[in-house]
Design goal:
The protein is of the alpha+beta class. It is 19% helix and 36% strand. It has 2 domains: 335 residues; 84 residues, Thrombin, subunit H. The protein has 8 helices and 28 strands. A hairpin with a 5-residue loop joins strand 22 and strand 23. The longest helix is centred in the middle third of the chain and has 20 residues.
Length: 451
């Protein structure tokens, strides 16, 4: 406890700071910081416990696939109507089955039946017979699609096609920092957060710094793979102990989602998004996460709509008395509902937004908000943070909420642990991102409209 004049106040731990939104808001106001991505996910209930350092999920593959012709006339059985072609997939891996109906993308859009399929190392051989007897107009590079199947009277069944789910793996990352080291002189630097409690200024800044490190990894980080369970970890500390990092949103989208590079927010890119999402059967409500450039371009798009849409642009400008409110916080475009979420992480002047940076100040992440349906029923958040439980508090010097644990050391701790007149506050958490809906996420890499 600390005395301010004649009033005794209690020291609020970093865990209290994380768990209490009112305390957090006051600290944010004092330090002029903004809520991080990690905090946003926590407030929205998207933290979920994991008991293993790596976590797996399985995603259904598409039920249909296409094949590309690499040779349109390996064998001509009957001119233009019964031909064996070679496709790109080899060794029996081609998608087609005997007696399936294939769409041919020529000028007359003919269809054909798959008469035979032969496995070949140079590309499977597919014998096609025109359904109507008209010319099939086959050509090298054409993409063939299955539109149905047929069978003979009294014939055998069309063979079964197996669908194997795609397995994704990510892992947690250890975050452990000394978030405060306070001498007896610095001990007087406290922030009052309620009539009966305070937090050390150095501890508040240290915790905000650590939370930013976590958030930046969840947004922009690359994963090492699971080094915690590997016999040959790729990263170790000076004592040989394994170090593992978690993949962030950008990494997930880069490998599985959609990327639109060098674009400006407007009709062109939004129309392309609509086309892609329609093909993927994506739920049509999204967060659009980004920085100032994203917010500016969204506003400029709506303000500058031409012609008959000018009235829509006018509606984006609100004037109440002598105050004008100009800006866009969300909109619906062709059935896609976007909630604009400007985040400080994209514009940190010494982290992401400086001359020669990686360019994340010009990124916008578009993330579906709907839960992902699960096979067998139920659903789960498309994006969530997985954490491993850390030990609970073990006395006056330690506090834990299950996600974060802080420990106080030194002579200035609630229970002194040494003769050194200082207070060290350590903070530890183990967490990582999980993106179940990665194929439905996208990123816009925007052309900057200013500096």
């Amino acid at each position: 406890m600390a005395t301010f004049g004649n009033v005794t106040k209690r020291n609020v731990s970093a865990v209290d700071f994380l768990d209490n939104r009112e305390i957090f808001k006051q600290i944010i106001d004092i330090t002029n910081e903004k809520a991080s991505f990690a905090r946003m996910m926590n407030i929205m209930g998207r933290y979920e416990l994991t008991t293993q350092p790596n976590y797996h999920n399985f995603v259904n593959t598409e039920l249909f696939s296409t094949e590309t012709i690499t040779n349109p006339a390996v064998t001509t059985h009957t001119a233009n109507t019964d031909i064996t072609v070679r496709v790109a997939s080899a060794d029996g891996a081609s998608f087609f089955r005997v007696n399936e109906i294939v769409q041919i993308p020529g000028a007359n859009r003919r269809t054909a039946r798959v008469v035979a399929k032969t496995s070949d190392a140079g590309g499977d051989l597919i014998r096609l017979q025109s359904i109507t007897g008209a010319s099939m107009e086959l050509a090298n590079g054409q993409v063939l699609a299955v539109t149905g199947s047929t069978n003979s009277e009294g014939g055998t069944f069309v063979e079964h096609r197996k669908h194997f789910p795609t397995k994704r793996v990510n892992n947690v990352q250890e975050f452990a920092e000394v978030i405060a080291k306070i001498t007896d002189i610095q001990n007087a630097s406290k922030l009052e957060v309620s009539p009966d409690s305070f937090i050390y200024f150095d501890e508040a800044n240290g915790l905000l710094t650590m939370e930013k490190n976590i958030s930046n990894q969840l947004l922009f980080g690359e994963g090492t793979g699971d080094n915690f369970t590997s016999a040959s970890p790729t990263h170790v500390d000076s004592s040989g102990r394994p170090i593992s990092t978690t993949r962030g949103i950008n990494s997930y989208i880069a490998s599985e989602g959609l990327t639109f590079d060098g674009v400006t927010i407007g009709e062109t890119v939004l129309n392309n998004l609509k086309r892609q999402y329609a093909k993927k059967r994506t739920p049509m409500e999204f967060w659009m996460l980004g920085g100032a450039e994203m917010a500016i371009q969204n506003s400029q798009f709506w303000f500058n709509l031409p012609g008959a849409a000018q009235g829509v642009s006018d509606s984006a400008r609100w004037v109440t008395g002598d105050e004008a409110n100009i800006g866009i916080s969300g909109y619906t475009y062709n059935g896609m509902r976007f909630k604009i979420m400007e985040m400080a992480a994209f514009d940190e002047q010494a982290i992401t937004n400086f001359t020669g940076s990686a360019g994340y100040q010009n990124f916008a992440f578009i993330l579906p908000t709907a839960n992902v349906p699960l096979v067998g029923g139920g659903s789960a958040p498309g994006i969530r943070v997985r954490y491993m439980s850390v030990p609970g508090g073990n006395g006056k010097n330690s506090s834990s909420n299950g996600i974060y644990r802080t420990t106080k050391l030194g002579n200035l701790a609630d229970e002194p642990t040494s003769d050194v007149r200082e207070l060290a506050v350590n903070c530890h958490t183990i967490q990582g991102l999980e993106c179940l809906n990665a194929p439905h996420c996208s990123r816009l890499i925007l052309q900057s409209s200013g500096s």
